[in-house]
Design a protein that fits this description.
two-stranded antiparallel ribbon, globular
Length: 251
Amino acid sequence: MQDILLLLQDPTAWVALITLIVMEVVLGIDNLIFISILTNKLPVEQREKARRIGIGLALIMRLGLLATVAWIVQLTNPVFEVFGNAFSWKDIILIAGGLFLVWKATKEIHHNVDVEDDKENLVGEQVAMTFSSVIVQILLLDLVFSVDSIITAVGMTPHVPIMVVAVVVAVTVMLLAATPLANFIEKNPTIVMLALGFLLMIGTTLIAEGFGFHVPKGYIYAAMAFSALVEVLNMMSRRRARVKRDATKTH
């Protein structure tokens, strides 16, 4: 208790907390996009429940990992070498998660592009996925993003209470943003392809990180923000053209 009071009186602790909250929220965007796309394939009445369970699992996993910070730090220690390249458990988890994301995004892009595919696309009325399969896939990616998130937190501050507060705030933001984001994606089919492209890029980045090629997160999120801005401009252009077309028909 005394340690917490001392932290509250330390300005550097507050700076670390705010910085870490921003970082955790930004890192949570990847997880949130995946959850939104995946849960949109479920029947409407199951979607919000699946999002809450998925984000709740993310919180439990992050807090559980924080309880074993000493073990988490050891995940960065090399466990074997291949052709002179050392790999840690963190690298293995990132590579596996990246491969899963690339496979999943590629599969969904194929379902949306191939009109002869016998499965419905992400915005169709029919769904081919069960509630349990969606939760399992969310759980797998929660693990990957949670490990990356907590290792990032450990690298920014040694104070576990600060990490806990930052994680809880970030996951709360995810919980509040999940349904609006999922609804927005569902109502705008072109956003689905853009989001899948984001997942493909994120998966490739995770694989690169696992093989020791550091890709600055700022570049990734700047590219995502620019792509999102272009898509917003396209949406505005299409809406304006539709309004003009409707106005012409009425005359």
